[in-house]
Model the fold of this input.
Amino acid sequence: MTAARRRLIDAARRAETRAQSVAHLQLLTEELHDIEDGSGIPDERLRLMFTCAHPAIDRPMRSPFILQTILGFDAATIAAAFLVPPTTMGQRLVAPS
Done:
């Protein structure tokens, strides 16, 4: 009885999660269509931020890319913020990882 009750509870939870995820996925799809149309991001800097934060870019390099591309900081300033040598940060910002 306990196993059957827990299976029913698990099935109900999965159904609820599935229903919530469908609505969330529809919202994400609508947002992606807005972004592709160009109507979803009115500011070019915001578009650049999303580009610099793309999943294809290594996670540790996303913030330095945003600082360099959008705010115009040089490698030495970014290196000081991330506590690494300026030459290292310069190489990271130039070389693909």
Notes: The mean pLDDT is 83. The chain is about 75% helix and 0% strand.
